[in-house]
Amino acid sequence: MAANTQVRPAREETGGPPLRRLGLLLVRRRRIVLALSAVVLVVAAALAAGAVPRLSLARFEAPGSESDRAQIELDRRFGTGSPDLVFLVTARSGTVDDPAVEAEGRELTARVAAQEGVAESASYWTRGRPATLRSEDGKHALIVVRVPGDAGHVRARVLPRLVPEITKGTGLLQVRAGGGEEVFRETVPLARQDFVRAELVIFPLAFVLLWLYQRRAMAALVPILAGVLAMVIGLALLRGVLLFADVSTFALNLTLAMGLGLGIDYCLFVIQRFREETRRGADRAGAVAGAVEHAGRTVLFSGLTVAASLAVLFALPFDFLRSFAYAGIAVVIGGLFAAVIVLPAALASIGGTMLPKRPLPKPAGPERATGFWHALATRVMRRPLLFGGLATAVLLLLASPLLGLRFGAADDRILPLEASSRQTQEVIRESFPAEESDAIQIVSKDRAAGDISQYAATLSCLPGVAQVDSAAGSFADGRRAGDGDTRRFQGQGAWLSVVPSGEALAGDPVRLVAAVRAVEPPFEVLVGGYPAELADYRASVVDRLPLVLALMLGVTFLVLFGMTGSLILPVKASLMNLLSLGVMFGALVWVFQDGNLSGLLGFTPTGTLDPSIPILMLCVAYGLSMDYEVFLLSRIKEEYDRTGDTEQAVATGLQGGAPLITSAGGILALTFAAYATAQVTFVQMLGVGMAVAVLVDATVIRAVLVPSLMRLAGPLNWWPRGRATTPAR
Question: Is there a single domain that holds both residue 526 and residue 570?
Fold first, then answer.
């Protein structure tokens, strides 16, 4: 064994495949590589530290949509738009109609309007006392505020000054802040706290699990360090992306979660191959070269697969979702650098500390695997229809809640109950008859418009509409209900404010928008406001979902074909991965939409799922599923190229790859599952959904469906290329 722990010059090995030559080069230049890697780490850490504060707070918007154009016209021609912020004003005694309370309310409204960054401020007292801005018990009133600018400017610069100043209140008034911008301003620090707290738990647990699997402290520590390196490089690369694109602050969360998981996964496969090469009798230089040649190739294909799956998010015209593509691809690059460049140089230097303490005997001939996974694969392949059918039935049953999927809007209930903005929104939801701050806004396309009275009256008759305000007055139930504040409707052309009821917003605001757009207007109009923005964003995402799926399946098909030379194996892999994705979405619907386990996890179900997070998880989970598919197929194909026997190749490949895949999958699932204890529901969804997908993929899919389907396909698995001519080793 001593001979295997020394680095030999290996001068005779100057040829061979490119990756093997790379491995030998890394051995010979290991000190230089490690020194340069340390420099890269320091530089990357500096860039990463500078990237984090530059991440933006992107909104869920659909650029170029009807609602987006409506907002532009409202701002340009009327100087108005959707409120960004709401102040809930509560009378400390009496009601908001008391003269003294009204006087302080008007003064407070004017004080809000005078604050830097505020474009508009209006309240119950300045808009002619509409019922939509007064609680039913008379104790509360609303001040609605418009703060123009991008999300980063509003949430990071204006609100931190404005909210503390106004929520001081007055002698007669207590003030609390709410509204969409304040909700998401509170979400960001809570999400960061969730990830920091989770990482503090994950690192020691990952080390323990790795030690139990590797039985060497250094072999457990090195993959974790590689994960850290992947995270740091990923954030550093995002600093470059920020020069030409906006990246959401939530991308930081994905960088931390995927960086550690992929860094550990990739390094485990290289270390495992290094151990196998050593067991076969190779010296340390040859073992490193063999690990880079075989495991390195697999890791490169795996990284390409994950990156390709995330790259399809670029097909969506939303900065929020594109941010995750940038972050995911950057992390993959970091993981590949750590596993294929840094780790081999480290193995050449300290490889002996990665080997089992008890020496393994050198096999006398071609290695034939035996063990639990070999026996399991053999048993499954004896009755492939039975085992494959049962596994498929179980997965379809677990995925069945997906049939009840309903998309909706994320609101303040993504926050914990103790969050200030959520408490504000709860009072508004329970005490006010309508949602003035979430009004649907209709603006004429032309600067000249005709009579709008009949149009406003017709709109006010729609189910879910509490009131319609316009230059012609306010309308409710088809009748004029008062003058209202007609001054705000003066400008070039005409616009109307359709105020929805609280029930309509809590139910299906998209349906209400469709009903408003279906009413025949007396002139050409654009429909905007928050409900319309939600409808347009959801439609844009859902409409492009088939394109996302097609691109995702297409690019991964090409990657797997390039690795295996088979047209059948990529199709089979895609079908199996769709099953694991179905289980993941079934879990999301069952838990987060329907509210099962809400008490245990501590979140409030709304009966719908925001479409953004599931689509993000679709791409991430599909890429990670293909990650394990690449690892397993590479082992099976290598054995098939050596023997030409599909069944033996599957059993031997499963025995060689399944223990590692299961261990790596368990660690990655743990990484995501730690986020199930988060305070923000988005983070919980990511944690639970990804943990379920990884566990199902690393166990049932790989252990049962892969051998059963490959047994049924037989020689067809390798069509059209068939067996490669690889010499036995």
Answer: no
